Amino acid sequence: MKKVILSINAGSSSVKVSVYSAEAGQPPVQLAEATVSGLTAPPAKLDYSRGGQTVSKDSEVADKTLSQRDAFNVLLETLIGDRDLHQINGKEDIDIICHRIVHGGDFAKPQIISDETFHHLEKLNDLAPLHNASSLAIVQACVVQLPQARNVAYFDSQFHASIPAHIRTYPIDQGIARKNHLRKYGFHGISYAFITRATAGFLGADVDRVNLIALHLGSGASACAIQAGRSRDTSMGLTPLAGLPGATRSGSVDPSLVFHYASDVGKLSPSSTKDLHISRAEEILNKESGWKALTGTTNFGLIASSAEPEMQLAFDLVVDRISAFVGSYYVSLGGKVDALVFAGGIGERSDRLRKAVVEQVSCLGFAIDEAANGKKIENVVQDVGKAGAKHRVLVCLTDEQFEMARGCSENRELW
C-alpha cells in the first residue's frame, strides 16, 4: 500500500516541502519539491519542480512579508493545484506529514504529534525562540487543514542524544541546570543522520562502525564528531548560536561580550511577541552578527571569490573556526577517523573553502585533490581527497527531507 508523505523543512526565511510516494519499509520516491523563499525580504519567490523537472523558478508570490504559515499555504495550494501531480488531487490524498523541528529538548527519537506532544513542544519555545515557533505554526495549520493526515515531529537535536554527560554538561549549578534544561543539545541532527548513513554506504561500512568529522556548512553552520555512527560531540549547544559563525550568527564568543556591546541587551527585543521572548542580546548575536556583520553580505560565494580585505578577513575567520573544531574532534575520536565530510550549501559549493580547511588541517593526514575538488558535486557522496592520504575527504549532498520521509516509511506505527 502506497502513501503520500509531505516532508516540511521550515527555515527562518524559507519553507521547503518535498512530496514522496512511500511503501512500508521501502525507500521513499520523491514526486515533487516546492520552496517559498525570501520570507524576510519581499517579494517572496516560489520554486517548484516535479519529477526532477522545473515547473516554476523564482515566481513572485507576494510583495509583502509572509509568515512561515503563509508560505506553507502557498505550497499546499501549489501541490493540490498541479493537475500533473496525479498522486495529490485533494487534501485527503496526503497521508503523513513530517516536520523538521529544531529543538526537541530531551526527545531522543521522532514523535507522532498529539495534543500532549504539541503542548510539550510549545514549552520548549523559550529554549529556541528564533526557531521552534514558526515550525509549530505550520504543524497547527496541518492539523486544521489536513485532519486525516498523521503528523510526525523530527528533531534537529535528537541525533545528539548520544553525547556523553561530561560533554553535554555545562559547569554551572546543576540544580538550576536541570530545572531550566540547560545543557548542550546540538542541532542539524537530521542532516547528520543522513550524512552518516550515506557516507557509511559510500565507504562500504556498517553505519554503527563509521567514525566521521562532519561539517554542515550553510548560513547556519556546525561541526559534529561521529563515533560508531553516533554523535559524540557537536559545536552547537543549548541553542544553535554556539560554535561556528554563520551568515548572521556570531558563533561562540566570550559570554561577557554582550554586556559590553550595548546597555539594553537584556531587554526584550522589539520583535518579541506573545509567543516569543527574545532578548536584544539574542537578536544581535543571532541576526546582526556573523559574516554579514563583517562584510555586509550573507552570500558566502561572494566572500570566497573576493580579494577585498573585509571579505578575506571573514573567509579566514570561518576557515580558522572550522579547522579548530576539526582538530578538536580528531583528538576526541582518538585519530580514528574514516573521513572528513563537507555538507550543506557552502560545504557542497565552495571548493575554495574545502581546500583552505583541508590544507590547514593537513598535519592530521587530510589532503585535497584539486582536480576532484574543482568538479561539480553531483553524486550523493563524492570523493575530493588525494589518493594515498591517511584519511578520506568527502562531500555529501545532504537531504533532510528525504531522511525524515525515510524514517516515516520505516515507522510501523504509521502503517
From TrEMBL:
Gene3D superfamilies: 3.30.420.40
Organism: Podospora didyma
Residue sites binding ATP per the record: 16, 216-220
Chain positions recorded as substrate binding sites: 100
HAMAP family: Acetate_kinase
The entry's keywords: ATP-binding, Kinase, Magnesium, Metal-binding, Nucleotide-binding, Transferase
Sequence intervals crossing the membrane: none
Pathway it works in: Metabolic intermediate biosynthesis; acetyl-CoA biosynthesis; acetyl-CoA from acetate: step 1/2
EC annotation from Swiss-Prot or TrEMBL: 2.7.2.1
Active site: 156 (proton donor/acceptor)
GO BP terms in the entry: acetate metabolic process; acetyl-CoA biosynthetic process
Name by which UniProt lists this protein: Probable acetate kinase
Family: Belongs to the acetokinase family.
InterPro entries tied to this protein: Ac/propionate_kinase, Aliphatic_acid_kin_short-chain, Aliphatic_acid_kinase_CS, ATPase_NBD
Pfam family, one: Acetate_kinase
Site (Transition state stabilizer): 188, 249
Tree of life domain: Eukaryota
List of residues binding Mg(2+): 9, 400
